[in-house]
Structures are given as C-alpha cells and as structure tokens.
Design goal:
The structure holds two protein chains of two kinds.
Chain A (H helix, E strand, L loop, with lengths): L4 H8 L13 H35 L32 E9 L2 E6 L4 E5 L2 E4 L5 E5 L4 E5 H7 L25 E2 L5 E10 L2 E10 L4 E6 L6 E6 L6 E5 L7 E5 L9 E2 L5 E6 L5 E6 L7 E6 L4 E7 L7 E8 L2 E6 L5 E7 L5 E8 L4 E7 L13
Antiparallel strand pairs in A: 1-2, 1-23, 2-3, 4-5, 5-6, 7-8, 8-9, 9-10, 11-12, 12-13, 13-14, 15-16, 16-17, 17-18, 19-20, 20-21, 21-22
Chain B lengths: L2 H26 L2 H16 L8 H19 L17 H18 L3 H12 L4 H8 L3 H18 L3 H7 L1
Helix pairs in contact in B: 1-2, 1-3, 2-3, 5-7, 6-7
Classes of the chains: A mainly beta, B mainly alpha.
Amino acid sequence: MNSDEPIAEELRAVPMPPELVPPQGYIDEALRRRARSRSYRTVAAVLAVIGMMAGATAVMGGSGGGADPAQSPEWTSSPYTEPNLPRPGGGPLVVESFTAGPDRHYLLDRDTGVYRSVPFRAQVSPDQGHVAVTDGVAYGFADRSDYLTHGADAVSWPAGLPGYSAFFGGLGGLMTWSPDGTRFQLPPVVAEDPPRIVEFVAYDVTTAAFTRTPAPADVDVSHAIWAADSEGYAVLEKRQGARPALRSLAVDGSLGPRTEIDGDHPVLAGFSPDGRYLLYYSSPDEDDRRVRVMEVEEGETVLSMKIDDADVRRTIVGWADSTTVLCQEWMNEPGVWERIAVPDGTVDRGDAAWPNDLEIGGIGPSSALPPEAADLGF
Amino acid sequence: MNPAHEREFRDFAAAQSPALLRVAYLLTGDVHLAQDLMQSALAACVKKWHRIDEPYAYVRKVMYRSQYNAWRSRARKPESIVDTVPERTDPDHADRVARRRDLQTALARLPYRQRLIVVLRYYEDRSEVEVARMLSISASGVRSQASRGIAALRRIHETSEIKEALR
C-alpha cells in the first residue's frame, strides 16, 4: 500500500456524477469498431502490397526508385521537432535518448546531431555504439547506427527469458548497461506472494546468453545496481529495526559483508565511474529527502544534502563524472541542470535546462558530435 | 471473435464498466470523454481478447495509455472540468462530498502526466515500478511526478481538510 493513505481514500471517495453511466449499446459498438478497424487494415494492406509492387517495378525498370531492401517497409524515422529542444551552447554531456510519451521514443543520431524517432525505448551503451531496447514485451539490443536506420529490423531479440509476469506486459522497465558495456540488466524477477525479488537477470551481448543471479532467500534485498567493476551487483539489504546495508552480490548469488548506510528507504543510484563513491538518495516517502555519497573503501558518508528545499526540488540523474553528481530541477519548466560537487557539496546551477515532460533515457559525452550539434551539450 | 469469447467479453464489459468508468472519469474529468475512453479501450481489446489473462488490468492499461497519447496530441489544451454539483444531504455528508469534489477539480487541473501518475499511484495503488513499466518511463520519473502531483494538489486546493488528506 502507498503511505499516502488519506489521499488514496479521498480519491476513491470522489463523487461521480449521476450521468456517468455506460452509453447505450456500448458493448455492441466496441465489437463493431473492431470489425471496422479490421476492414480498414485489410484495405491498407492491399494498398501496401500494390505500393511495394510498384516500387519493385520501378527498381527493375532501372529508375533508381523504391525502398532500400534492408529497410523495414513500415519504418520511417523522423526528427524530433516539438517542442524545440534547448541548445545550451556546449558542455561535456548530452542527452542520448528520451521518451516523449508512450510509443514516442527518440535517440540522438550522433552523426548528424539530430534526435530521431525510434520504435522502442533505447538505452545507449557506455561506448555509445549499441542500444538495449524494449518493446514492453521483450528485450533486445542493436547496433546504434543500424537501429536509427532500420528500426525494429535491426534489433536482435534474445529468446529464452523466463520468469516474468504477464501483467502490464511484464516488462517495459529500464535496461541498465554494465560499466564495461558487455551486459545490460533487466528488471528483476519478482515473486508475488509474499512480494520479494527472487532473481536478477542480465543479458551478455558478447556471449548472447542470459546471466541469472538468484537473490538470497533469507535476506530481503532491494533493486541491484552494477558493481563498479561490472562483476556482479551491489544490493540494498532491508532490515527490520536496523539501518539498511549495502552488500555486494556475486553472479553466483553469494553476498558480501554489510556496510550500513544512512536513510530509512534509500535508493541506490550507482557507483562513480572511478568506483570510489556510491551515490544514493532518499525515497520520496521520507520527509527529509537527501542525496548522499559514500566513500566505498571506508564506508564513510562524505556528502549528505537535502534534495528539496523551499525553492528548489531536484531529481537525481546520476554521475556526470567521478566527482560530480548531475541533478535536474523540476519545480519550474524546463528543468534546470544542476551539478553537485563531491565531496564538498557545492551546487553549480547553470542556465542549461531540459523539458520536464521528456523522460531522459540516458546521458552521454557530447564529444565527437558534429559542429552543428555541439550546442546540444550542457 | 468466437461466440464463447464474445460472451465472455460481453459479461466482462457489463460487470466492470462502472469501475472502468470511474477510473476514466478521474483521468478525463468529463463524463462524455470518460465514456469514449472506456468504449475505445474495450474496442481495442476485442481482437486480442482470447489472449488477455487479466482483462480488468489490461483494459485499464489500454485506457491509461490511450489517455496519455490523447493528452500529448492535444498539445496541452486546457482540460474541461465537470461543474455538476452533487446533491447534498446532511451538512457533514455535504461537506465531505464537496471536499472530495474539490479534490476531483484540483486533480483535473494537474498537468496530464501528473494526473495520470497520481491516479495510478494513489487511486490504483500501483507501485512505482509498475507505473514506470506501464508508461515506459523511469521509476525516478514516476517518483518525481507523483511527488510533484501531490505538491501541486496541495497548492491548488487550499482548504485545511484537503491539505490534511494530502499530507
């Protein structure tokens, strides 16, 4: 249950207008609409076949027309145009991919510096050369350039991924690449009664095999983040009457020693690129929401600062580099980027911003962007 | 759709339409839009009906996604707000009803994505992970939007009782 029980109760008790009743004949209409849609698609399919035949004829006739045979006949990528994206004028980072709503996903074409539509949500690999994608039902991966050109046709969809609930399609969550770029993590397998994580799953793109790591049966662990060396994970152990603890989780399921960390319900965000620090932050249920950084070797919290104050509320995006945490302000539109220096906590609040309505899929380096796109960097 | 599936579909639609309409109304704030939303969602499920394991959850998912797309395509045009005042009975009850209707009005003024996420998180009691998967957005996005939505409801609605409920 949510902790905001009063609002839940009030919402459930919102009075409905008396005229809110199913419209007359709505079931028949739903059945009819489907039939009409089916007829329309049949006509469209016939027209498509005629169109393809016309294209093939043109190619055979030597006119040079027709589609690239490798291109999906149903896929046409288009640039993102609405609203105009901010162009901060340059900086070391760039948004690699974003989602503008269900079925509206965009990926940066690094050759042209244009965000182009792609069929599925994409998470860019650390070397920027590949993408992990999900269509909400399955996970796949592709070469980045091929994916921009050929859409779904460029995606490999590994088979044999068991254990997911069919509810809400089962999948659709985030893919997280390992720091070395060889694997991406999928949402964990969850048992429903009682609800707990039972298995962590990653896909190794170098061996085309799934890595399945059992969660310890006698320990209540939360989500997993990649270990800094990409060998296994770090998980949060939730403990009754005690502070939560950070533990390493090897691929074979064995746990490392406990390191207690601050906060009642912290969320692990990730290790710094050099592996020295761990970034984590308070869950929204906590009153005093804080972003915290722990020096891993000593297990010492070196930074603890409020995420929200009267004027500024922040979403933690992740590490900008090994000594800088990247945040986004969301009280105003668009959301201004902020950089928090580690460990001194100095906040650099620049002018660059990003529309809050566009869900960021990933951040990458802006180096090697073409000159005309360099101002996308922030 | 074979006759057995059609019968099952009709039974489902007849039994669940009040609950579906209620969700649709919270999302749209308008009776006619709510009816359209529910009807479109049902129509979208007809073809794949035989493959849907949890129809109530599935139809609601279709409703959420349809409404999300509709909001985006309307490019943030102002939403209509129902102005029908519920019938009042005793003063206490009337206050409660008015308060909750005010909550609905405040909800209808939220930006579309915040409204959707507030309904999913607090009316449907969906976890952040479920909402994130459903909308293909990040869990942190769900968290921030839910938090923003509640904060906005507080700002929009200033009565002490609603504030208390939103605390």
